[in-house]
Amino acid sequence: MFEARYQSFDETADPSQGVPRLAALRAALSEKGLDGFLLPRADEHQNEYLPPSAERLAWLTGFTGSFGFVIVLPQKAALFVDGRYTVQARAQVDPAAFAAVNVADSSPADWLRDNAASGQRIGYDPTLHTLDGFERFEKAAKAAGVELIPLDANPVDALWADRPAPPLSAVSLHDESFAGEGVAAKLGRIQAELAKARADALLVTDAHCLAWAFNIRGSDVAHTPLPLGFAVIPAKGRPSVFLDGRKLSNAVRDALSEASEIAEPSALADALQTLGAEQATVRLDPAGSAVAFARTLEKAGALLQRGADPIAKLKAVKNVAEIAGARAAQLRDAAALCRFLAWLDAEAPKGALDEIGAAEALETFRRETGKLKDVSFASISAAGPNAALPHYRVTRATNIKLTPGFYLIDSGAQYEDGTTDVTRTVVIGAATDEMRDRFTRVLKGHIAISTAVFPKGVSGAQIDGFARRPLWEAGLDFDHGTGHGVGSYLSVHEGPQRISKLGTTPLEPGMILSNEPGYYREGHYGIRIETLVLVERRAIPGAEREMYGFETLTLAPIDKRGIEPALLDRQERAWLDRYHARVLAEVGPLVDEATRIWLESACAPL
Q: Which CATH architecture has domain 317-599?
């Protein structure tokens, strides 16, 4: 009845190969006169989702999370992960090969400084390290008396016998009815930003920025409609786009040619040399561009202007068409999700349903909208202790039945008019007093963000604590940000906007973010409640400053069976009842009668 077409539940890496592959890498390094190697989980675009050909870290270690860094030394090797992945790393990686280290305890650069021996030569692939990140290693290497050696070829590639070929997916045009703005207008705004910054050109290495600026999409990586390529946008004149010609139909090539020159990616090096010969001032994002590009430009004679890619900020603030598309996508997705939740309530208590079966069902309901292009990430379908892993990915090896307690489903969809991301934690059977307490504290934090009102200029870091206070009051917390930016038929994780201790970008009307506090009791259960919100202006009588707040975009019931009502105050209860009334009013007409009957009960006042 149900199937998954856009996600796989097969294990993609083999931890048992960690020891022999590490030995082979050390032997290859030794042949080159090297004592070690630095390997980030990255490609030359610094994507979160990598093409299979770039999953070098997973091939070497067995770790499949979205953030990781490996340092190999003659007698030691370490895998660095953040708080989302500490448990997963222990489960996936052979400790005989790699020590798993939380970056909160030691950064890779600090570990290198403390563990490398003076005189050692450590190799690195300059196409995979950001300029900012690599400079931290340069300081650490200098302190340790270590020499960092740039390599023309990644040594992992030579060892990876069955490495997949680089992607060659077709590039498509993103219709202006969805984009809301033509390429010429976007380029005009980008060039105006370059003029203000007194830059002669912008080097675009972020594929998301490339896709947005030129209204193109692709499928070179899973779950994010990206065409992998580069661009050079001058402050005056025509930009150049560097895309593999095999990806371009005649229609796409003709459309791109109206606003830009088109060249192969291999021609980028010559373009950078030309900028250097002209002694151009080139804007480059040091946090997102590879050190290889920066070094090439500097060596050629260009002046680097280090700063954020202005496209990222322009892309983050959605226009009228993108906002309308986001609302339509969320409503469409809500109907599919509510059908799933009604079905889940009927099937889970029978005891036969497992994590994969639930994920397949939800994807099927979404496909039945007739609009689904992909899931926006592999669904986190997690029961029992698996839900305590914030970024758990179910495989056939880890798949378990949904048993009494909490079931967490974090999922999303890619539609041409918008990208969705939603998490609901569902009670199967009954929840314990402790579970209801934790669920309600997470809900209180969620409501605190949803109802936040704040002045212009406030960043996500300043409101992140709103979501944590109810947990802090019980001596609890969660090890991930409260919210991330979301793209418009682009990445489900978009910067620079975010609600996080590290979120320093001021929030502006038109930005879309997630609101997703959680709680995770390792080995037992996990809780997360996530909706997407849109920053909007708020009119407050007597206000002395321009004020903002959030419009909630996601529409799906929050399971009242997980709530301890006594922990909610009057305003919180009123918010929940209003939200559920809205869900019923807007989603109810879009679903079948059985789902509508379930929805009436799920959305009844607390």
A: Alpha-Beta Complex (3.90)
